[in-house]
Write a structure and sequence with these properties.
Largest sheet: 8 strands, antiparallel
Order of helices and strands: HHHHHHEEEEEEHEEHHHHH
Number of domains: 2
Low-confidence stretches: none
Radius of gyration: 28 Å
Structural class: alpha+beta
Shape: elongated
Mean pLDDT: 89
Strand content: 5-15%
Length: about 375
């Protein structure tokens, strides 16, 4: 790293950290204000933990706009003090000056992707479950009562819940594979982090394709039809032994399920790989796959917005950012434009009006094209 790179970093990094802190605080505050009435009286320490857990999810959103602000402030200051002019007069090309910021943008994008894969799913899941613990005194399982919840290859339903013991009653797990229906009934179940332990269970596997077998017009024996239809009928060896149980292991933790389906308005707790699988590999409904695809492309589009916003920030800083107030104003304007394009694209993509990739990437492409035009046409990049 050259002395010039260190000088630029010393000017850029404090502004970048300021932007991350500023925008993270704004995002968390805007998400928390509507919930204030529900956390009145909750100990401050617990609320603080809940707020801190929201920070990782904001980083992919705040890094691009924080980098935008940092570039505007840094290059604006250099332009105002005529340092840019002096460097260019000394033979240092503009593209040499922006090379460092491209590296910073790449590192920011990489950090965001790693967070989305390994850290944000864990923190988001904990945010959702901790909210219900703070406001209801227990887990958010009660929010899933009498609903059909997709869990791996099954759909989970339960009719009642003991909120003290975290047990659910009247449990049904069902799964379709083509024309074969697998149904598990249980009197009660204990919810574990890695699945369900069922008590008083009964398992049935119905092969509905068997109803189409046989010769048209042929009268079939009802017992034979029933045997072909009911492939498996299983239950505990001793129905009077309430201690016998069957454990169903799931890939999703209790925190994941509660956060995704409690309708609390929390961020999704799936990783990049999980969202990709739900979008393109799972047998879910068309709308479920589309929603997952929108989320997947958003998780990618936000980190790569570092490059789109960087392309806009560099020429704007050189041309117009002659003071801190102007830099903040330009940063706010570009941020609002990016947010508007991303939001509109997401709405169109979710509605099916445009392909998902087009809806989620058009905003980045527009800003990237605008930035490149400004760089080459207005700042004499050479």
């Amino acid at each position: 790293m050259t002395r010039l790179d260190r000088y630029l970093l010393s000017a850029c990094v404090p502004a970048l950290l300021l932007g991350v802190l500023l925008y993270t605080s704004m995002i968390i505050t805007s998400a928390t204000l509507p919930r204030l009435q529900w956390i009145v009286g909750v100990p401050l320490a617990q609320v603080s933990v809940w707020l801190l857990l929201q920070i990782p999810a904001t980083i992919p959103q705040t890094l691009p706009i924080a980098l935008l602000l940092a570039v505007l402030l840094t290059f604006g200051k250099l332009a105002q003090s005529n340092e840019l002019l002096a460097w260019q007069a000394g033979g240092i090309a503009m593209k040499r000056l922006i090379r460092l910021f491209l590296v910073v943008g790449a590192l920011s994008a990489g950090a965001s992707l790693l967070l989305s894969e390994f850290v944000i799913p864990v923190s988001n899941a904990r945010v959702g479950t901790l909210w219900w613990e703070l406001t209801s005194g227990g887990s958010g399982l009660f929010r899933l009562l009498e609903r059909d919840i997709p869990v791996d290859d099954y759909h989970l339903y339960f009719a009642d819940i003991d909120r003290n013991q975290e047990e659910i009653y009247g449990v049904r797990l069902s799964s379709w594979q083509e024309r074969t229906l697998t149904v598990l009934f249980a009197e009660r179940a204990q919810v574990r982090d890695d699945g369900l332990e069922l008590f008083g269970y009964q398992l049935y596997v119905l092969d509905l394709a068997s109803l189409q077998d046989g010769i048209p017009g042929e009268t079939r024996d009802s017992d034979a039809v029933l045997r072909e239809l009911l492939r498996v009928a299983n239950q505990p060896t001793d129905p009077d032994d309430s201690g016998q149980s069957l454990t169903i292991t799931t890939s999703e933790s209790l925190d994941d399920i509660i956060t995704r389906f409690s309708q609390g308005g929390f961020e999704d707790s799936r990783s990049l790989r999980e969202v990709f699988a739900d979008a393109y590999l799972s047998p879910g409904s068309t709308q479920e796959q589309r929603d997952a695809a929108v989320l997947f492309h958003r998780k990618l589009a936000e980190p790569f917005a570092n490059f789109a916003l960087l392309a806009v920030a560099l020429p704007l800083a050189v041309l117009y950012a002659r003071s801190r107030s102007v830099a903040f104003g330009l940063s706010l304007s570009v941020t609002l434009l990016w947010g508007l394009l991303l939001t509109l694209g997401q709405l169109f993509a979710q509605a099916g009006a445009v392909p998902v990739w087009a809806g989620m990437w058009t905003g980045n492409l527009i800003l990237l094209a605008l930035g490149m035009w400004l760089l080459f046409k207005r700042t004499s990049l050479r």
